[in-house]
## 1
Amino acid sequence: MGVSAPSVAKPYDRMVGVRHRERMRQVRGLLFSSPFWLGFLAFTAFPMLASVYLSLTHYSGLEAPVFRGLGNYVDLLDDPAVVRAFRNTVIYAVLSIPLNALLGLLVAILLNQKARGLSVWRSIYYLPAIVPSVAYALLWKWMLNKEYGVINFMLGLVKIPPVNWLGDEKYLLIAYVMAGLWTVGGAMIINLAGLQSIPTELYDAAKVDGAGKFALFKAVTLPMMSPVLFYNVIMGIVGAMQSFAFFFVLTQGWGNVSYSELGTVYMVHLWRVGFQLFRMGYAAAMAWVLFFIILALTLLVFRISGRWVYYESEWITGGGR
Amino acid sequence: MSTTLEQGRAGARAVAATSQVWTMDRVRKVAGRVALYTTIVLGSIAVSLPWAWLIMSSLKGNIEIHTFPIYFLPQKFVWRNYLEVLYYGWSGPVSEGSGMGSLWPRYFLNTSIIAVFVLIGTLFSNALVAFSFARLRWRWRNPLFFVVLATMMLPGQVTMIPTYLVFSQVFKWINTWYPQIVPAFFGSAWAIFLLRQFMMTIPIEIDESARLDGCSDWTLFWRMILPMSSPALGAIAIFTFNGVWNDMFTPLLYVRKPELMNVAIGLSNMRTMGSLFGLRFPRDELAMAASVVVSIPLIILFFLFQRYYIQGVVITGVKG
């Protein structure tokens, strides 16, 4: 382009060269990052716009979409199945995630002590977190089996009559929470990293002031860990709202795909509305509602605390081990 | 080895020397140790029980597993369950599974093929994009990086339905692996973020001397920065592989032919049902055996690359 500029005045020539080089630099920058931009247009920007439009229509995936304004969103609010799925998801998330985070912190503190074979113990606690989610669900489904499940058997040993875990919504929610606790190792690892990033000077200073073990925990560990805990709780809730496979398999009927509304969660219901009942416009509206809830929770994290960002970026850039 | 032995001896001597004096302090210390180890051991037993139950259930016979009262150990170890999962059938819904050979070798092969392509796409495209954000200087670089980060906030569900419509109706990708593979070649925000952060820590002098030697951006990327980023690439590879192995949702939408399914969807299709002369009965022991088989590769991977795993968990924050 500017390369073949006529050789007149020198400063002008140099300016063209600089401009050319700058432009090439710009081109290269965009070129190297182009995979993302192409993907962004194809898999994010366009589908998002299409999704906005679809959420305003009635669309079965076969005939042309019929525009119906905010009708889907209005219907969502008093659709008992949606409300039920949403309520189940919230109950599960609000019970399970803080419990997990707290237990995760306790286990992390336990395995942050000086003990022999720490890495082995940590692996044992962490291992359930890497089980594929479908296997996880199948195992728990079997353990929760009413007649032959080991959980009811153990309850029987202390004379508690068998519980219909998978057939009664309120027990099903308890079962979700119980099953979720098995992956406490994931929270443990994050908390361990958090614990190790607490400067030891703080503990030393507190000890000089004569603080006991419990006081140390209350005055140093908990305040220093609270941003990590808070971040994990909110992000855990966001994750729980989007999880699918575990709930799908656990609530799946026996035999052929017989879907039960019992204990259904938001994502499973969304899948069913879109891909089994072919109400794609309605499903798109459900997805947008989920998006705004997640957005609100994420903004809450950013608003309330900026501390964990510092900790995280420091860790990534090699500040930690 | 010998040093630990010596240390042990020295420790033992020290203990022997002081063992007569049971001061209050020492009692408290020993009690603390005992309490610590008891808690750790009891906790790990509790955490391991579901594992043990999984393995024991996978080794029981069909009649025994459905007998009450239940026993922890199988009366007779039925190793045949594993052969049955891997070779003889019972692998899919009754209509397709019974009578024909097991689909599990296919599931493993399919998942491995998909994983290879997804890994190539993920590692290459994300590294390239991260390189441009970390090592090249161009206008709007930082505002555009913010756009990358912003897409992390966007849950996939919002784009799910239009994406499905395009893949299935425009590209006709039903019963292909393209929906699982192609998006991997276009980068994903968390991996770009992780790699960019890592590449920022590589000294800038490397770029300067490379450029003085006349290296192009591409050579700098391919020969220097990419190899030096291998720790971050390793973490991303592990997580990506995990994601492919676990992905049930994409094949659920796009794959209907059993012989094209991956391990996750294959496992979810173990409807724990067998049939004999039209009578249906649950085959829970086979579902458990299949669960063990599907978990094993991830467990091996975990022990081989523990460090990357832990790093990845901590960086990505939530997911276990």
## 2
Amino acid sequence: MNALVLARPLLLGILAVLATPALAERQELARSVAMKQAAGPDVQRALSTLDGLERLADPKALAEVAGKMAADPAMTPAGRDRLLTDAARRLGSMPDSAASRQFLEGLAIRKSEVWIPVEETGGLVHIPLYDAGAQARHTLKTLDIRAVARDLTPRAARGEAGLAVEARAAAPGSVFRQGLKQALLDARATAAGSAGPASISHSLAALLPQDPSLGTLALTARDPADRDVLAGVLDLGDTASGLAALPLTRSLPSPEARPLLEIAARRGDIASAAVLEAGRRWPEDPDTGRWLETLLGDPGVGASAASALARYGDEALVTRLADRLRGEADERTARHLVLYLRLADSAQAREAINRLREDPAVSAAVRGELR
Amino acid sequence: MIRSFARTLILLLVADAVSAACQFDSRGTITNPSDPSCRDAMFTYTENDNTGSRVAIGYPVPVPVDSLTPVTGFRTFESLHARHQALDAEFDYVTGTIVGQTVSGRDIWAYVIGDPDRTTVNGRPEPAVMLNGGIHAREWQSPEAVTAVFERLVEMAGDGGVGSWLIDNMTVVILPVQNVDGLMSTQRYPDRVSASVEQPREGRMRRKNLASPSAPGSAIDQDLDTTEDNFYGVDLNRNNARGFGMNGGSVPNPVSLVNRGSAAASEPETQALLAAAALGPESRLRFYVDAHSFTQIFLAPMTGNQRRDAITTNLATRMRAALNNKYFWGPAEPGRGGIGTTADYFAYTFQIPSWTLELEPRNGGVAYGGTGVSHSGFILPASEVPRMQAEIVTMTLPGYYLMGGAAAVAAAEIRNLDTDEVVYRGDQAPGPAGADLRVGINRALVPGDRYRLWLAFDKPMRWLGNAGSVVSYPGQPGALAPALTLEVPGLGALDLDAGPDAWLTAAGGAPDGYHRYTADAVGVDFTVPGNWAPASPAAAVLSVSTADMTGQKLDADPATSVDWAGGHWSGLESEPGVAGDDGGPDCSFKPFVATDADAAAPAEVACAAFSTEPLPPAGGGGSGGGGGGGLGGLGLLGLSIYAWRRRRG
């Protein structure tokens, strides 16, 4: 009995290898043929079995059964591709185990047996209908992430500042960072641990000058009501975290949000996005509207300001900005005012465009853009 | 026992759920669209979560961002449109036009990039190229790639070099988003799809327009959760006149991904594309690209017009080389006739290079560490967007440059370096059909004297790197240095040796500045060999074998201007009177050598570069770098040339 238990992982590995057609001919089949193969009664029965084993949370059994079924000579190649892909996918949702990892590692180098044409290419280019190898590699990664998250969640719940330092030492996109992100989410989900991530968010924000890529983690750890970390990410986080931070300002009242958006608007990479974010709230916040109007002459974000102001068809604004265009001496500003009128796309704006197109008070070059 | 029973029960319960799914016919069309198990099935893309109806793609699922400027990711349609409108409003050389409306009534815009006069600096009608984007809704890369080209052309417009030349001399028509309805529909549901994991539909994976089969011109809704109409729409890339309904590329079934529609150009979006082409206008079009994703390949119709097909192949070769052949080449069988794609339409109708550009990846999202789940190739990770854009720009620019036409020499001046006297000055005065050679000064080149040749072309000949110096354009062939020879029959051939620095990048014209654009002129110092001492004035020829930055040879006879007609170049000669598509050397400028500086010019001679007879190498004196000695490449090359043929005079 013990010998069988010990031999089982090995057996699974062998089965996985047997199911790995490293030397098998790649078949290029019509989608319908491939899908018919992949949806045969034997495959349906196999998938049902795997579904049941997943529900029973038995990864060892699932890996073993999948390996056995895939090695069945009666199984079609497309059915085998589908079955193994499905098994690899399900193992990512199940408890980690040495057996499932061994199975997945065997699958990870597997090439798909059945490829189908991409619709657009008229049969010139084929892609796998199912890619068990890619799915296995991904599942192994998610198992690693979950393992890291499991280890780090207690530390995240305790608010260990050292986690921020460790995160900085890890590469962006690394398993450690992804695991820590999950740990922060898991810790926040428990009442007992919710304060810990918030504390870590400040440690992470403090490291942003040295490593802007920590911004995403800082946002994850942040208390939703925490304005300082948000400000830090908008100022110093990388582009991805800066963009992710902008919508978070929507929960803040305008007087608190506007200074944050102004910070972001000074950054070239997210300036336009920040100005457009401000455009969401200007009708209820006259100060934001005035700020946007001051940006119309800005070479970097003037066009974005025009677009932000045009978001809402405000008749009073159309009138005011059309009048401003008439007397505008600065050509860049004037062109952005034209852009505003074009994007406003209201009857009133169109009327203003038609009127100003004939107005000699507007420069000829700018009139040429009033279309 | 209890556990075993439970297991069996579970297996029985799930059996039905697993078996219910979309069914497909031999063309990949769903055959049970009304079956709730197919029609109403919904899936959500996630990064890592594969539970239930969630489908992990293995990297963050991109969500479109509101930003006019490029971001690390995809912009919303509204932002892309505002960006295009901003470029239109800000720059006089961008002109936006509404070219039609979608089936839902949204405006479709096209933009012309180029100076307003629509004529080249030589006063001839400009050639036009066209770039279409966003015809298939789910291919989000396409509008971003097309917009990147748009943005780069505007950014380069004032560079004084290739960018300025493009603005001055070409018309670029860009239709950034043809299928506006579809793109907006996909962006409304950036992570949701319906129907089937293997052939996901609607939501993020809508491909077609929103045409409803219920009544011509009517549109379906854009609500993913009202599933009755989710499969409908017309594939706009099967709705075009050439090859419509032919060659098995489409089906007349509103459920199909390749539903061709009721008739060629039945869809308003297709009609908008034709209206955009008219901005070129069509008669001036020389190149068309329709940007799609994925599979990383140029899918090129081959019309059977051999010259056109060869030019198309060469053009693709040059463009693909710019990315080290990362993109594959997929020519169709010559004369196959098309399947109703836009590329078919432009290739067959106008006999111009035309293709469907399928952007990366080759096989699917697995290329980015993804799970490889079906159709993930349509979902480029946000982090890859800036790189993809930069690559497409890099690949596109040499294509536009090349299709602007072969370069021709524009002017030459030879100046005595000791006396600063101009001894030769000629130019090609542009006329409507070609240039007239005008020679204002032609005095003797005296053996032993040092000279500076300034030679100008009618387009920038080299690319400038970030440091402002001449560099090779990625993947393009040929030497950076100009290839110039002074041929003197009876005396020899003097290679005017010069390095890449001979290309002039400062303003000012002759003798030290460029002509109209940076690197459109060279300045080369040379010494006429002292042992060239003809008893009587000896006619010479300045032979210019320099190719442009893509390896394209010169128009050997500027008297007939280069244009496009009948699927090939017109007015492009490999030597005077010999038309073709390759080009050749230029021998327009014909100075002479005499020991007496005041000697009269002799009768002109023909150019050895057009003949096969060898010229003897220069016997002495020298060339290059301020007038040193030595033989150049053409002198050595002359050893293999075996026939010297005199032509005029």
## 3
Amino acid sequence: MTTSTTSRRGELSSTALALIPIAIAINVALGHLVQSVLKLPIYLDSIGTVLVGVLLGPLAGAITGLLANVIWGLTLAPSALPFAAVAAVIGLIAGYARQYGALHAWWKMALAGVITGIVAAAISAPIATYVFGGVTGGGTDVLVAMFQNLGASVLGASFMQGAVSDPLDKTITYLIVWMIIYALPKRLLARFGATEH
Amino acid sequence: MQRTGLFIERAGFLQRLNPLTKITGALLLIGATFLLPAPLTGAALLGGVLLPLALASLVVRRFLDTLLKTLLPVLISLALVQGLFFPTADPATVAVGPLLFRRAGIQFALDIGSRLLVVAGAPLLVFQTTHPGTLVQALIQRGMPRSVGYMLLTALQLIPAVTERAARVAEAQRARGLETEGNILQRIRGLLPLISPLIVGALIEAEERAMALEARAFNAPGPKTWVRDIPDPPAERMARIVMLTALGALIVWRVATLALG
């Protein structure tokens, strides 16, 4: 399945080594483009992570997510660091989604996006609550305030905010990745071991 | 070349230290903010440790600038959302103009806010005073996989290049009549023609990089030599042991006080 993730000694293959840094840069560059240039109300900062997960498997996906947030924290926003674990899980799920045949149909990719979004919301809620007090300084804070006003605890409101925002964001991410993979030349896909679809 | 990362080239106090010592120090500070009572600890660590260190390392202006720029939106949001909507049974309120802030909410915002300044500030100071190359080399010499170091440094260098390419793709598609302004639906529809050239190009480049890595035997087994030597005097090794012991003691103390009620 994920033939080219690791070499014989269990280390990352050259393909993974070359693709992961580029995927990290795509996460940061696209996240910036979507949020600041196009000013859309979604994040789209995990396209690279999902792409690597789907192409090279769970391990490579998790590494991409983890390092992407470490780098993001290192360069632009130190507040991205605490969420590195969430990003790693997003990559992990993308890898397993591929193994369960998510690439075979667009609606399977959409389903994988919804599942990833819910899991991501569940893991980020405690981090958002205990490190950031439930807010991130972005537009989604309005949702947190609303849920708290309806009687939710800080943790509950953080989760509900994530449960509204994340599945939408991740579904769009998975669908974009699906379309990109279908647009890729076959020769390139063979290099990444994704030939079965 | 475009600047990447936070590193500022200065000859101050922290710049002379071994990266491992600085990371250990940051860990101790972050641990302390969660283990000792807020908001006093956070304020004391920021004013008594981080700021003097930034001053001694000649980066205090950039340190405060970056810290506030990243955290100010969070702090304002924290004060408003938790000050006004914090779920509490305590009816005590503080009136500020027309707004009624809840006392428990203000307390919560102060606790989290002071902690946040240290949690973000400590790593920020490490990165502002450590060249990424030195940092990664020190970590690899301590057993971090070489591949992780390679990926971290490459990604750091690639971010400005990919950002620039994204802007160029956006311009090229706009020249062909793509709408990047207008309502949300139009902007989402304009997204795919931007993203797919960017990613397909990046994947082709990844293939070339992979071949270059193989040609240079990056994955070859055996020991490697280092061009740079990172000094690690005994005093710093001692300091690291002391800081880790302090962190361990804090954790034990905290667990003990929690267990004993």
## 4
Amino acid sequence: MGSDNRHTEIGQLMALMRMSKREYEQYLANGRVFRHARHLRDNNQKILNLITSDDFDLGPDLTSAIGDLTEHLQDWARCWDKENDLRTPKDDDVFVFTGYKTYPKHLDALLQAHCD
Amino acid sequence: MCGIVGVLGQHEAAPILVEALKRLEYRGYDSAGIATVNSGALGRRRAVGKLVNLSDLLVHDPLPGKSGIGHTRWATHGAPSVNNAHPHKAGPVAVVHNGIVENYRELRAELAEHGIGFETETDTETVALMTEHFLKSGLSPIEAAFKTIDRLQGAFALAFLFDGQDDLIVAARKGSPLAIGHGDSEMFVGSDAIALAPLTNKITYLEEGDRAVLTRTSLEIRNEAGELANREMRKIKLDHARADKGEHKHFMAKEIAEQPIVVAEAIRSYMPTGADQVVLPDTDLDFSKLDRLTMVACGTAFYACLTAKYWFEQLAKMPVEVDIASEFRYREPPITDRTLALFVSQSGETADTLAALRYCEGKADKIVSVVNVPESSIARESDVALPIHAGVEIGVASTKAFTCQLSVLLMLALKAAADRGTLSDEELADHAAALRGLPSVLNTALDQNRAIRKSAQRLSEARDVLFLGRGLMYPLAMEGALKLKEISYIHAEGYASGELKHGPIALIDKHMPVVVMAPRDAVFDKTVSNMQEVMARKGKVILVSDDDGIAEAEDGVWSTIRMPHIHPSLAPILYSVPAQLLAYHTAVAKGTDVDQPRNLAKSVTVE
């Protein structure tokens, strides 16, 4: 049997990213309130946990893009946590923050190419 | 089924109890209630229907007190009514109960001889009355509760609260699970860790026959023999216990969407990076030494077993029997010492499956379970417990647990094939590679959500629906039908395509939608012939297939649902997604309660 779990991990990562995308869309569509930001924070943390786990390895051609995603998510989470600590918002409060490294959009196409 | 919570706290108990009961809603219920002790006085509030009715009652008629017990009831003995709702109270004692007291008639007769009358039809009232009876005879609350528990036969979890005792709950477990939560000068009781998740992450699970005495600062557990018992306190991961729909309308939708993630977890657990074989942890299980496999389960897990029968027979050339757990014991099947007995249950607490497992104890070579809850009774009573890693499943209609069960069972079949030498290394590698790619393919199936919703809109107007499948898709046809009837209340049946002409075809007319699960595989042509027979009688076919299958057979069908290409062995796992989404969107279109469908319970803990 082959011993490489790359494809399993790509599938897992894509599903988590799909859920984050859905949560971000809901956040934008519903007044950017904390309830949706909280859901997004939870799911993004799951992505971070996956891609920073010891045995996660999608191979050399994706290393750089995964590194960019890690930086984006760590930066985003840091800004989220800082804003949350400052304001301790309630679910219906508007929750907006900036200043984090942007999402590496090229990753989507790269992952899809590995699935096809 | 029924849910139990209890709190000895530092704050008002009623809102904590109601919130905890909300977290147990997923188990299914039709009435709810709480009792508290306030300044030594026992009071209670109960309401029929959803928890919002109990909350409304508490707004108008508050129940103060920092100690309390609560319950969601799924009716067994007596209709859903305020009178039958828990907690049951008899004089100075209130009781909540999950399970069935099988000897309650005998106990009622005994109490009647003492001139004690009854107000309800429930078995639980008997428990409260018997405890009161023992209290009147001079026993302390703890002694009275213990003496009552000694008299009970059946499966139960119980919590007792007493008048004048605002720092005491007595709890007991026999057959139904119960967890104790440790807080900071607070103590909690819950049917599972989910109920207690925001309150504490420190949990002690009671074991079979245990009874516990809780105060705010102490927990004393005795086993069935009355001896002090030392039970481990575990720190659970709150993330695993927290139940949150996120941005999804229903838990079921979230759980369907999570499938690529949790199936990947299952695959990584049994086929870790670097391993070239399926790896079962901590076991010397060797299928080459076994003659036969007996699989037992209920509901959706039963259909997972039926699917696995094909895998074990085709891949490992191993004879397999599959039984519904509630019937298994009554056949008194001979189990030899070269039989592997395998039990599948999401909760690991399914009463019939547990009873079947106990029937096999001492007969089978090994007892293996495939469960989602590693601390469950079924897991603990097995020689080998294989977790499916699906995470908490809240929707009553099982989705992600089903695909994880299938994934684990397929890996087990591959292990059997390797042990028995029935597949070559190349064939094993081929299957393993396909399995490792499954999460990505599941993502592609989920992309069809919109198209499936359109088909479901049409399906929602039907009164009856048939599902057809052949070979590996036959059990999935039955699972698809079960999913649809569970949550949309539309009558649905799953048939082997080849059986159509032996009866079901008489049902076909222009009003009958027929969902055909047919990947372009070795039996596709035969299935399409059966589909043509349906269309010739004006039946409305929804064809679920891949590009090749749809290109060949889409003429004249009502609608199509397009799936990606997949290794034939994995098709039942992939095609579960459209079956689940069809049921989900049909139920949403009909406006039914998707996550808590009427009359159903998530964890069936009574026989």
